[in-house]
Structure formats: C-alpha cells, structure tokens
Specification:
The complex is a heterodimer.
Chain A: E1 3-6, E2 10-14, E3 19-21, E4 23-26, E5 31-38, E6 44-50, E7 56-58, E8 64-68, E9 73-78, E10 87-95, E11 107-108, E12 112-117
Parallel strand pairs in A: 2-12
Antiparallel strand pairs in A: 1-4, 3-9, 5-6, 5-10, 7-8, 8-9, 10-11, 10-12
Chain B: E1 5-7, E2 10-13, E3 19-24, E4 31-37, E5 44-50, E6 53-57, E7 64-68, E8 74-78, E9 87-94, E10 102-103, E11 107-111
Classes of the chains: A mainly beta, B mainly beta.
Chain lengths: 118, 112
Amino acid sequence: AQSVTQLDSQVPVFEEAPVELRCNYSSSVSVYLFWYVQYPNQGLQLLLKYLSGSTLVESINGFEAEFNKSQTSFHLRKPSVHISDTAEYFCAVSESQGGSTSYGKLTFGQGTILTVHP
Amino acid sequence: DAGVTQSPTHLIKTRGQQVTLRCSPKSGHDTVSWYQQALGQGPQFIFQYYEEEERQRGNFPDRFSGHQFPNYSSELNVNALLLGDSALYLCASSFGPHHEQYFGPGTRLTVT
C-alpha cells in the first residue's frame, strides 16, 4: 500500500519570498510522483511530474520539485512566489510497475494551502 | 480540444436517494477514474474504468458503482445516499490505465 504525507497543512508567505511545500511518501515498489494544484471551486491541474530520468523536474510557471529516493521525498519549491500562486497543492503517487493491483491509481496527500500575502 | 467535462456541476440530494454523475473524457483518452474529495481532504480513489470494465477499486462500499460506455464516457452511481457522501466528485481521464491523468472540474454533491 502507498501513502503520502504533506507535512504542512497551511503555508503563509509574502509575495516574492521563496517557498517549499513538503511531501513524503511510502511505497513498497517504484513510484511515479506528481504535484497537482487546485484553485478555489475548481478541479485539479497537473503542475509537474516525475516519471524517470532527472530527479529535478520543473513546471512552466517557475515551480520545481526534486525526487529524493533515499528520503522518499518530493518537495515542491519556488524561489519567488506571486499572489496568483495562492491555491491548494496536492502531492500524489502512483505505482510505476505494471500488473500491480494499484497500478494507475493515484494516492493523494491531504493538501497544503499556500497563501501568498502582498 | 475539449478537456474532461463533468455534469452536473452541483447537485443537492436527500439521504436515501440515488444519484448519477457523468463524465466525458478528454479527446483521445480511453480510461476514466473517479475520485471523492471531502471538504478539507485530498481526493480518494473510488474506481477506474478501462475497456468498459472496472479495473481497480478503492475502499468504497458497493453503494458506489459505475459504468463506461463505448464512447469512453462514464457514469458514477451512488445508492442510498448518506450525509457523509457529501463531497466534490472528480473524474480523471487518461490514455490507458497507467498514464498521466487529467482532471475535470468536479461535481459538488450535497446530501441533506
């Protein structure tokens, strides 16, 4: 079974400050890792993903996340946040091996609400 | 290119009633997954449909059932509604069961 822990339920920051949203996971098999963003009253949008290759992945709007296998973490970072980044962020995992009973199923963390203040 | 669409956007039902939610996948996608997102929680996997069959199921009772049609659209049915079924129901589609999932805007179900 897989599980995801997002260590902070709320993160308040000032505009243009750096931010890190923490995510740790547990799984007995290899995983794919994802960060999704949810704006108020909307569905989830994929922010970035790690499938294989370079452990540092980047999004088009300045976010990045690094897969750390030894620490089973996939923390999300941005060097300078904007007001428009205010949203809820979800970390998710899925097993990367075919034939598993949970292959393709996403397991989400509880979410981190990022609030950017002017 | 239309993304994932869901209907209705909002729904209010009474305890004990039955409800049907609908999802149309993104163009080119053949797999639909359903998630329940309770207030203040992360989404929880309900089940996944591929080739018109339920391929995986999360920890949800049999009151939750689904269907996938030949055009890949899907329905989620919930019988004997409970107050605890109040949530945002999200549909996600992908090309194949193990590929990147794209989410729809959700259906907000309120059970009174």
